[in-house]
Amino acid sequence: MRFVIQLIAAIAFSTLAQAQEQQPAQGEVPNAQTFFADTIIHGGPIYTADDNNPTVEAIAIRNGRFIHVGNITEAQLLNGPETTVISLEGAALFPGFTDSHVHLAGIGQRALSLNLGDIPSLSALKEAVTMWKHNHPDDPLILAGGWDETHWPEKRTPSKWDLDDISNNVPILLTRTDGHALVANSKALALAGITSKTKSPYGGAILKNALGEITGVLVDKAK
Which phi and psi angles does 18 have, rounded to 5°? Predict the structure, then answer.
């Protein structure tokens, strides 16, 4: 798995072109302090957050400012005797992140398991989980996350009955995209001791249908 390298920058990539500094005139001997870069980074996909130029080969930085965002050939012209050159060795580089409300650890864990973030329907979710179970027959537990029912044609959340169609023997736990709810199959509910008589805990909810049957959806503290 390739590691992601974060570059924490004070200046957004969208304004990098304006940060270019004038290069020496033809025939002028460059001065390392005024021309050469302090740092050059290359060797992997570099994402700029600029829709018109989404990825580049290399970047060069001097005095905390980007002086080149583009191809490696031009970046090498800025490589002086005091320049530090960093190779990404195939890893990716991103601008610094401003986290509004994102759980990066959870997103990383989702990427290592079954990611349901792009699932377009409930039927597609069932197909994806069924395929995962088929490809991982020795897994004692199926964990996945990222589903969001708000745009599904079925217009409803998954239920324990949907997951029971996939397996009654292996516990299945599928977390919603916001992390505030999950749906479990009957096997998982039985192992947790949750029945129709189980009361919802403070700060959470064990959802039930009109008949008083647990649906398998557990919210917040009930998880």
Answer: -75, -15
Lowest mean pLDDT among 28-32, 116-120, 198-202: 28-32
Closest by CA to 120, choosing from 76, 154, 144, is 154
Residue 43 · residue 2 · CB < 8 Å: no
C-beta of residue 163 within 8 angstroms of C-beta of residue 129: yes
What is the number of other CB atoms lying within 10 angstroms of the CB of residue 222?
A: 20
Burial class (CB in 10 A: 0-12, 13-18, 19+), 208: middle
Helix (H, G, I), strand (E, B) or coil at 76: helix
pLDDT, residue 154, reads: 96
Decide which of 136 and 33 is more confident. 136
From residue 10, give the alpha-carbon distance in Å to each of 14, 140, 142, 143: 12, 46, 42, 38
Using CA atoms, how far residue 28 sits from 24, 31, 35, in Å, is 6, 9, 11
Q: What is the CA radius of gyration of the chain?
A: 26
